[in-house]
Specification:
single chain, alpha/beta, 12% strand, elongated, disordered C terminus
Amino acid sequence: MSMTLSEIAAEMPVWYSASVEDDGPAFHIESDAGRGKTSIMKQFPSIMKQVDPEGDYGFVYINGLTVTLPWLCGFMQMNVHEELKKSVSHFSLPYWWFTKEGRPIDSYSGGMIFIDEEDKMQPEERKLTRDMKLLKRVGTHWLPEGWVVWSAGNPLGSRNGGTKTFDFIINSQMLIPVRDSTEDWVEWAKKNKVLPEIIDFGEMHPHILFMKAPEVQGPYCTPRSLAQADTFLRAKMAVYSKSKIPLDVTTQGTVSGGIGKENAEALFLHIRMGQELPSYADSVAHPHTIKIPDEPDKLRLFAYKLADWAKPQDSVALGTLMGRMPSEFQFMMVKMIRDRNARVLIMPEFRAWCKSNAQLIAIIEGYERDHRQAA
């Protein structure tokens, strides 16, 4: 059974409780490239903190593409055994014994060692990961209590360099295919300051957002490559002090190198549509008279852009603008303000809106929750 990333995040504490037991199952998530597998796994410490506030959880990343036997086991040393008074072979501490913060893993109450791109590891190294997952041991090292080993990769035949998985590894873990979810991506994008034009583009074009690799190799769009395009565009706007996304040929050419020429053309067509909408400054200056778009796609983007720029001192004008929109777009705007500019929501105009629309909020959030569960 496949799961969305949000469902995986919700299940992660349960997975951990099972996996941390002796001979407990390890978990391997699998999807096409660029779907957010690594991003969700990196959230493990913060997810566990929510269910165990007193816990101190660490995270270690291992890239299966580059790992070698010494990287997994450490280097062989000869140490004198204190009791036997004889030389005994022992491996040095491997690099993954330390988290990004520089702390050894035995200084945490628990944690996860995440092996990314495991399907691309060489056979000898991959055999060792089975013991890491099931026995919590590699070489002469036993994992500290509370640590688990999970992994991720791409399906066999996905043209990403993966190799066939040994049956004894398959039988030692639980395979979870990742299911694409536009809703999950939109929620992630809102919380991570992605440009409203990019969010709206991904939401309107899921067939582009989650496209398969083209038959002829070249750049194509995935959630990862679209997020990279967003990072590039925001960087260019910052460097050149631009309030609007640049539309010059160089910018478009650079973005096409990440998501593909045709996809970039569709994206910049969408961006142009957004730039034809009223500006934030004009909108808050003339909230009663500014033209509100009629078309749903433009109205959604207009709501996203207002929420992205929302400032507490403009709350009266924003409340007026929002009141001129259909209810579903009002709710959409409030949700994004909550994720981007939460201070606006404490202003009286928005407290009053939330109070008067409590029933609508409950209905829509209930529908979204039920829709995700049904999917």
